[in-house]
Amino acid sequence: MQTAAPPLWRDTLPLCVQQLGVEKKKVTVRKFKNMKLIDIREYYQKDGKWLPGSKGLSLTEDQWNVLVSKMVDIGEALVKIDDKEQFNVMKAALDRKQQQQKEDEEAEEYEADSKDDASAAAVAAAAADEDEDDEDEDIGDVEFEDVSEAPAQKRVKTE
């Protein structure tokens, strides 16, 4: 009498089970259809038993060896990411500081211009008062041309 074949995951029991820091993620080594497999997978609990879930991957021995051979490169990349993130944080802080300095300088220039405008207005007002006093002054035979509303004309140089 034959019994039903067990599910594929239960064909062989893992020879090695390592947890990856959290209870649900595990690395297992097993043999399936005469192939050695390294599984990196999420597990779930059902009826008190931990079973492999669909989230994860299975690597053949060759794929695993390629991955292991790249560990130094991967480690260096992780360090570079940290360095780049730290650089980006520092650069962002510097950019914010430079922007704040620029805004402060613009505010100071605006205040200085406002003070200059106020001073200029005071000088102009004083000059206007002086001009009113000087209106009676005789300016002789000087002729003035009203150009405030005249259209712009090209001037021709005369000798």
What are the defining features of this structure?
single chain, 159 residues, alpha+beta, Transcriptional Co-activator pc4, Chain A, 2 domains, 4-stranded antiparallel β-sheet, 4 strands, 46% helix, disordered N terminus, Transcriptional coactivator p15 (PC4) C-terminal domain-containing protein, Sub1/Tcp4-like, DNA binding, transcription coactivator activity
How does the SSE layout of this entry go?
Blueprint: E1 16-19, E2 25-32, E3 35-46, E4 49-60, H1 61-69, H2 71-134
Antiparallel strand pairs: 1-2, 2-3, 3-4
Description:
The chain is an alpha+beta fold and 159 residues long. The protein has two domains: 9-63, Transcriptional Coactivator Pc4, Chain A (Transcriptional Co-activator pc4, Chain A, Roll), CATH 2.30.31; 70-130. Helix content is 46%, strand content 23%. The protein contains two helices and four strands; from the N terminus they run ββββαα. It has helices at residues 61-69, 71-134; strands at residues 16-19, 25-32, 35-46, 49-60. Strands 1-2-3-4 form a four-stranded antiparallel β-sheet. The radius of gyration is 43 Å and the shape is rod-shaped. One of its GO terms (biological process) is positive regulation of transcription initiation by RNA polymerase II. Residues 23-68 form the Transcriptional coactivator p15 (PC4) C-terminal domain. InterPro entries: PC4_C, ssDNA-bd_transcriptional_reg, Sub1/Tcp4-like.
Put the structure in a nutshell.
By secondary structure, this protein is α+β, with helices and mostly antiparallel strands. 46% of the residues lie in helices and 23% in strands. The protein has a 4-stranded antiparallel sheet.
